[in-house]
Specification:
Structural class: alpha+beta
CATH architecture of one domain: Beta Barrel
Number of helices: 4
Distance between the termini: 137 Å
Shape: rod-shaped
Largest sheet: 7 strands, antiparallel
Strand content: 15-25%
CATH superfamily of one domain: Type IV secretion system, VirB10/TraB/TrbI
Order of helices and strands: HHEEEEEEEEEEHEEEH
CATH topology of one domain: Lipocalin
Number of strands: 13
Helix content: 25-40%
CATH class of one domain: Mainly Beta
């Protein structure tokens, strides 16, 4: 009787041990990331993955606030200033120009004689450098024509240290007339011819000699160019803008020019 009871007890203990091992194996084989239900029967929970370098988005409405603040603090660029067409530019020539030496296309310099002031701003200062070019240089015809030279301005240094390019109407200077000098040359030649004719053949020879002398004198005049057209250094010339100039500021106030 006791032997049977012991055997039965051993078989029961083995069955219980086998059932416990089966339960532990089932718990260990749950899928990764799953949490077994607790004793109260609550459902398993999962945790969302957040990257370590993920940035937090800025609150709505804050984009560009820094740029907007800087744009308010920085000064606004000055509006451009327009120098209208027809504005007079008074300059003094920096070197002598003559039809004897000057050629079309030759450059020259001058200095502004009066400041340019527009709406209280000094656009160009007195003494500013102006540049120009010779547009024509004609040494003139013989007797009938006079020598003539033409010039115009092409740029001016403004008060903001920038050079503005433009076009002006040309200014011309003509050589003085030589009719009196030419008449004297002919008269002298005629007198010399008359004297030579008188010596050679009396009164009749004088008349012939005078005519010959006059013809010779006229030939001398025809073979000689007239006086050149010259614009001396420091000559005051006035030009007018052919088209408006738009210049970007800022420019100093005109009152500052008076203080200087």
């Amino acid at each position: 009787m006791s032997v049977r009871s012991n055997c039965f007890s051993l078989i029961l203990l083995g069955a219980l041990a086998f059932a416990g091992a089966s339960c532990n194996k089932q718990v260990a084989t749950n899928a990764p990331g799953e949490t077994p239900a607790d004793a109260t029967g609550a459902a398993p929970t999962t945790t969302a993955y957040t990257p370590a370098n993920a940035s937090t988005p800025a609150p709505s409405g804050s984009t560009g606030s820094t740029g907007g603040l800087l744009s308010k603090l920085l000064p606004k660029p000055a509006p451009p200033v327009q120098i209208p067409a027809g504005t007079a530019l008074h300059v003094r020539l920096g070197s002598t120009l003559s039809t004897k030496t000057a050629q079309p296309g030759e450059a020259f310099e001058a200095t502004l004689n009066e400041p340019i002031v527009i709406d209280g701003a000094r656009i160009a200062s007195r003494g500013a450098t102006a540049r120009g070019v010779v547009v024509s240089s004609d040494d003139g015809g013989r007797v009938k024509g006079r020598a003539q030279i033409g010039v115009r301005l092409t740029s001016l240094m403004l008060a903001n240290d920038k050079e503005a390019a433009f076009q002006t109407a040309p200014v011309y200077r003509e050589a003085p007339g030589t009719k009196k000098k030419d008449a004297v040359k002919v008269g002298i030649a005629s007198g010399i011819g008359a004297a030579i004719g008188a010596i050679a053949g009396g009164g009749k020879g004088a008349a012939i000699g005078a005519g010959a002398g006059a013809g010779a004198g006229t030939g001398v005049v025809l073979a000689t160019h007239g006086a050149p057209a010259v614009i001396p250094v420091e000559t005051l010339l006035s030009f007018k803008l052919s088209e408006p100039i738009e210049a970007q500021g800022p420019f100093p106030a005109a009152a500052q020019a008076a203080q200087r």
